[in-house]
C-alpha cells in the first residue's frame, strides 16, 4: 500500500508523492509560516558579507507610480572628500567598470550647497523680521513686516521642499559610487588578478575521474530532479552521508574559527528592511568578531553548462561566514588574519590557490578582496570556495555603525565641561569560512576512489560518527 506524506504549509522542505512501503525521514530545516507579513521583507540571511548582502538586497528607493520619491536608506557619504578627490574617485569608478555618474553627483552637490545657503539666508531674514515685530511699531510698518514675513514663509516652504528633493537626488546618485581601492590591488578584469600563493599539488589519478554529479548519483547523495519538481531548477536535496557531511563541515568549521576568537551566531533568514536601514549602534568595547551559520539565497544561478552544473552554483546554500567590526587602523591586519582561514582547507588536504582580485571583480563595497580557489578535478578547473573582503567604512556609513574612540575626553574651554571624543565609523570585513555546496564538490571530486567510494578527510570524521568512507549502497 502506498503511503503519502502530507504537505505541511510551514515546511521549508517538502515531499509529496506516493511512496512504496514505509519511509522514515530526518530533516533539518527552518520553518516560515506563510502569513502575510505586515512589513517589507528581505528574504536573505545576514551572512556572507553579512551587512553588504542586506544592503544590496534592499531597494535603494521608494517608488510610487514609477516616480522616484526618496531613498529608503541614507548613507553618511563624505561629499566634500569626493569633491576634493574628484580625479582619484573618477579613476576608481573607471577601474571597477561601474556606471556611477560622478559629474552629476558633484553638480547636484554644488546645487544643494547653494540652495542650502539661500535657505539659511532666508531663515536669517525671517528671524530678523520676527525680532522687529516684537518692538513698538506704527500700524503701517507692522503691516509691511507682516507681509514680508508671509512672503518669506511661502518662499522658504518652496525652497525647503526643493532642498529636501535635491538632497534625496544627490544621495541616490552618490550611492552608486563604489568604495575606494587599496593601492596594491591590480587594475583590470579577472585575468589581471594576482596570484598570492598556491598550496599543495593536484592529485594524480590512475583511473577515469568522475565529477561530483556522477559520484552523488552513484552513492545516492543528492536528488536534483525531486528538488526541481518542488522548488525549480538549481535546487537540490542532500541525502544520506551528504547530509552528515554538510553538518560535519559546519560544526568543524565553527569549532575551528571559535578557537580564533570568533563569537558564533545563527541569524534570521527573513529580516525587516527597516532594520537594514536603522541597524546603527555605537560599540564601546574591543574589536568585534562574529561567525555565523545560515542559509543564503542567490537569485541568479548562472547559465547551464559544466561550469555551473550540480552543486557548484545553486539558488540556496548554507555557509559559515566570518564578520569583523574593527577600528579603521586595524582593518588591513584583520584582512590578513581572515585570509588565514585557508589553513582549514590545507588541513583537509585540498589543493588551492589564493588570489588578490583585480578592480573589475571587486564590486562596490570591497576595498580589497582575496579569493581562495580549490582544484576540482571533475570540473577540470579551479573553483572559488572562499572570499575575504575588507570593506573599510563603506558599509558602516550606510548602516550607521559607529564607535566612540577610547581617547581621553577633551575639555570645553567655554563651559569648563569635559566632552567625549567624537564617534567614528567602524571598518567592516567578511570572509567565507565554509560554503557547503562548493566544499562538497571539492571533497567528493578530490577524494574519490577507483572503486567508486569517497574517503572522508580525517578532521571531519569525528563529526560524522567516525565514518571513514562513503560507499555505494547495497541494492
What does the model show?
- This protein is of the alpha+beta class and 475 residues long.
- It folds into two domains: 79-176, Serine-tRNA synthetase, tRNA binding domain (Helix Hairpins); 190-300 and 308-405 and 422-470, Bira Bifunctional Protein, Domain 2 (BirA Bifunctional Protein, domain 2), CATH 3.30.930.10.
- Helix content is 34%, strand content 21%.
- It is built from 13 helices and 22 strands.
- The strands form eight sheets. It has an eight-stranded mixed beta sheet.
The backbone outline, from C-alpha atoms, is elongated
Low-confidence stretches: 1-23, 34-60, 274-285
Strand order of the biggest β-sheet: 6-13-14-15-20-12-11-9
State the CATH class of the largest domain: Alpha Beta
Q: What's the Cα radius of gyration?
A: 29 Å
By DSSP, the count of extended strands is 22
The CATH topology of the largest domain is given as BirA Bifunctional Protein, domain 2
Number of structurally distinct domains: 2
Amino acid at each position: 500500500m502506498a503511503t503519502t506524506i502530507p504537505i505541511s504549509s510551514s515546511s521549508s522542505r517538502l515531499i509529496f508523492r506516493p511512496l512504496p512501503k514505509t519511509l522514515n525521514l530526518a530533516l533539518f530545516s527552518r520553518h516560515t509560516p506563510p502569513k502575510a507579513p505586515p512589513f517589507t521583507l528581505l528574504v536573505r540571511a545576514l551572512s556572507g558579507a553579512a551587512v553588504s548582502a542586506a544592503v544590496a538586497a534592499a531597494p535603494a528607493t521608494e517608488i510610487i507610480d514609477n516616480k522616484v520619491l526618496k531613498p529608503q536608506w541614507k548613507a553618511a557619504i563624505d561629499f566634500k572628500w569626493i569633491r576634493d578627490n574628484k580625479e582619484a574617485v573618477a579613476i576608481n569608478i573607471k577601474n571597477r567598470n561601474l556606471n556611477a555618474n560622478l559629474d552629476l553627483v558633484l553638480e547636484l552637490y554644488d546645487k544643494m550647497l547653494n540652495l542650502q545657503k539661500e535657505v539659511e539666508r532666508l531663515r536669517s531674514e525671517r528671524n530678523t523680521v520676527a525680532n522687529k515685530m516684537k518692538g513698538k511699531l506704527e500700524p503701517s510698518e507692522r503691516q509691511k513686516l507682516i507681509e514680508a514675513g508671509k512672503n518669506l514663509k511661502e518662499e522658504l516652504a518652496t525652497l525647503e521642499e526643493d532642498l529636501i528633493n535635491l538632497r534625496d537626488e544627490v544621495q541616490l546618485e552618490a550611492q552608486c559610487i563604489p568604495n575606494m581601492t587599496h593601492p596594491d590591488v591590480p587594475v583590470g578584469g579577472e585575468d589581471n588578478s594576482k596570484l598570492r600563493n598556491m598550496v599543495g599539488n593536484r592529485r594524480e589519478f590512475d583511473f577515469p575521474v568522475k565529477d561530483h554529479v556522477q559520484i552523488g548519483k552513484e552513492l545516492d547523495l543528492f536528488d536534483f530532479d525531486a528538488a526541481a519538481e518542488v522548488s525549480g531548477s538549481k535546487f537540490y536535496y542532500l541525502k544520506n552521508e551528504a547530509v552528515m557531511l554538510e553538518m560535519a563541515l559546519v560544526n568543524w568549521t565553527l569549532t575551528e574559527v571559535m578557537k580564533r576568537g570568533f563569537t558564533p551566531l545563527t541569524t534570521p533568514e527573513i529580516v525587516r528592511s527597516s532594520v537594514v536601514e536603522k541597524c546603527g549602534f555605537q560599540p564601546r568595547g574591543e574589536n568585534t568578531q562574529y561567525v555565523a551559520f545560515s542559509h543564503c539565497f542567490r537569485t541568479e544561478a548562472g547559465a547551464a553548462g559544466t561550469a555551473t552544473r550540480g552543486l557548484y552554483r545553486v539558488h540556496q546554500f548554507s555557509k559559515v561566514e566570518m564578520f569583523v567590526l574593527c577600528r579603521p587602523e586595524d582593518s588591513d591586519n584583520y584582512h590578513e588574519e581572515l585570509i588565514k582561514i585557508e589553513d582549514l582547507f590545507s588541513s583537509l588536504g585540498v589543493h588551492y590557490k589564493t588570489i588578490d582580485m583585480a578592480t573589475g571583480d571587486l564590486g562596490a563595497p570591497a576595498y580589497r578582496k582575496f579569493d581562495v580557489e580549490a582544484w576540482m578535478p571533475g570540473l577540470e578547473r579551479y573553483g572559488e570556495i572562499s572570499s575575504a573582503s575588507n570593506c573599510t567604512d563603506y558599509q558602516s556609513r550606510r548602516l550607521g555603525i559607529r564607535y566612540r574612540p577610547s581617547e581621553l575626553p577633551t575639555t570645553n574651554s567655554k563651559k569648563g565641561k569635559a566632552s567625549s571624543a567624537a564617534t567614528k565609523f567602524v571598518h567592516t570585513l567578511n570572509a567565507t569560512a565554509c560554503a557547503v555546496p562548493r566544499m562538497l564538490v571539492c571533497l567528493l571530486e578530490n577524494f574519490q576512489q577507483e572503486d567508486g567510494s569517497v574517503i572522508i578527510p580525517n578532521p571531519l570524521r569525528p563529526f560524522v560518527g567516525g565514518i571513514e568512507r562513503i560507499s555505494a549502497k547495497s541494492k
